Amino acid sequence: MTERLSEKKCVPCRGGTPPLGAERIAELGAEVPGWAVAEAKRLRRTFRTKDFATALELVNRIGAIAEEQGHHPDLALSWGKVGVEIRTHKIDGLTESDFILAARIDDLAARSPELLRPPSP
Asked: Which of 22, 38, 79, 95 lies at a CB distance of 3.0 to 4.6 Å from 42, suitable for a disulfide?
């Protein structure tokens, strides 16, 4: 049985580690379908929330996961939405840990429907 990304732990990147290639990015990207890959260097996703307070709560919960994993995304907080951008700054690219963090954030969102605004029809 293969371990799900959300069950893995982020691994600190050491300088000199090569970023993932296009094939591996595509494989891992299939496991986090809500995320967009930008320039093969970043993962991006926007979560819609009910209001500012719930967006702030989501930011705080994502922050707790980031601290636990030792891997910190860029977060953009505004009324009704939270933008998340993940990349490994040390190599200016993507590593498996970026996808692990994305999967963990997806799990958080799935467990926290009270924070998210349902998608428009």
From this structure: 38
The pair of three-digit structure tokens given for residue 34, joined into one six-digit string = 């809500």
Complete domains list, the chain, with CATH? 40-121 (3.30.1360.20)
List, in sequence order, every residue forming a beta bridge with 116; answer none if it has no partner. Answer: 49
Q: CA quadruple 46, 39, 88, 76: dihedral positive or negative? A: negative
Q: What three-state secondary structure class fits 37?
A: strand
Report field, pTM of the whole predicted structure over 0.70? yes
In angstroms, rounded to a whole number, what is the distance separating the alpha carbons of residues 119 and 90? 35
Separation of alpha carbons 98 and 59, rounded Å: 17
